[in-house]
Design a protein that fits this description.
Helix 1 runs antiparallel to helix 2, helix 6 crosses helix 7 and helix 7 packs antiparallel against helix 8. The protein is built from 8 helices and 14 strands. The protein is an alpha+beta fold. The strands form 3 sheets. Strands 8, 9, 10, 11, 12, 13 and 14 form a 7-stranded mixed sheet that branches. The chain has a 5-stranded antiparallel sheet with strand order 4-3-7-6-5. The chain has a two-stranded antiparallel sheet with strand order 1-2.
Length: 456
Amino acid sequence: MTLHSLRLRMMGLAVIWVVASLIAAGLALQYLFSINIERTSRENMEAALSRLAAVIVPTTATPSLSVPLPDPRYATPFGGRYWQIEALDNGEIARSRSLWDFVIEAPLGDTVTHYEIGPDNQHLILLTRRLEIEGEDGSRAYRVTVGEDHGPLHEATLRFGRDVTQVLLLLGGLIILAAWLQIKLGLAPIGRIKRAIEAVRRGDSARLEGRFPSELNPLVQEVNGLLEARETMMDRARARAADLAHGLKTPLAAVHGIADRIREKGGQADADLLQDLTFEMSERIDYQLRLAALRVRTSSHAARSSLNTAVIRTLTVLKKTGRGEGLHWTAELTDDCWVDIHRQDLMELVGVTLENAAKWASSRVTVRTSCEGDQAVIEVCDDGPGIPEAQLQSLGVRGRRLDQSLPGSGLGLAIAAEILDINRGSMGFSRAQIGGLIVTLRLPLAGGAVTSGDEG
């Protein structure tokens, strides 16, 4: 996944949302647990203070209890539970054995909850209340304080926090996994659209086919509409080119007939000029028709064709032609290469190149194929008269002929150059050791390029 991936963006947002939610939930649970545990502690202190008030003996100068409190922690030094009674009329103080010699500084007020550092540096939570207790000599006022060590409460809160963190981490992992599965399944139709587009690019299908969610159907229909419109425009362009060519053939035939009649009347030079012009026009019309049949490609289009199959089929056809029957054809083919070009265009490319070699060869044409890196290489060699080094750069230029003695318009290699340009290939020329010309064609390989099979 790249930084611009929709799946990555959705997964990132899901992770951020889950982490933020779980952190907020953990803090909220920790806060609620702390509040509830302190509320429970205050309720316990309220109960202890009420029990303590019930057993105070008001007749003694120094406050005392009629019976000790049942919790043994009050009688154990630094036991964690504490009480203190202060007589407001004489300042005498009584306190639990757990306080040892520590005196609680009780604040003023009817009922006050406060915190203080107690014996053994314990953090105490305390509840102080002013009480009026009736005795035989009248009522007496006391300031009664009960408290407990806040440390165990704090430890319980921390343990709860650790347990909650573990649970939330597990829950977060499960939620993120569920989010990933949801995103994967939710975006699966986009993958089907991608595969359908790749099928169109390879030429396996003319439109996007398959079942897609209703939310994506408008997009699929729009793409299919564009593909159909493009194909319709290309078919119309080819049809118009064919109509134009057929429409010109009749006038050209008439001009050719006129040239014959001029020759019969003694106008040999004018007749030859007319026939040369009609022949060149026919060649150019044929050139445009062959170009119109080529597939228009962009850099995103992918294709896959067998190189050896195209060479063998073309050789089989050319051997049966008048010129081909008199030549010795040699094919030196390596393991088959799959090239990134449509089969129809590959057949046209190999055909025009071999036709050019057959036209100039004296007795032999050799074809070699190989793979070099990420390219397939085709070498076509003939034993013809060859071309001077200074004129090699002129080959493949549309309409330029280096030898006027043979028929043709010089458009064969120009067609090959057009095909290679469309399919990101290249063409080179050099002199052969046997005296003729070597035409070297290079084409990019398709995925899984080398195989021993055929394209079927």
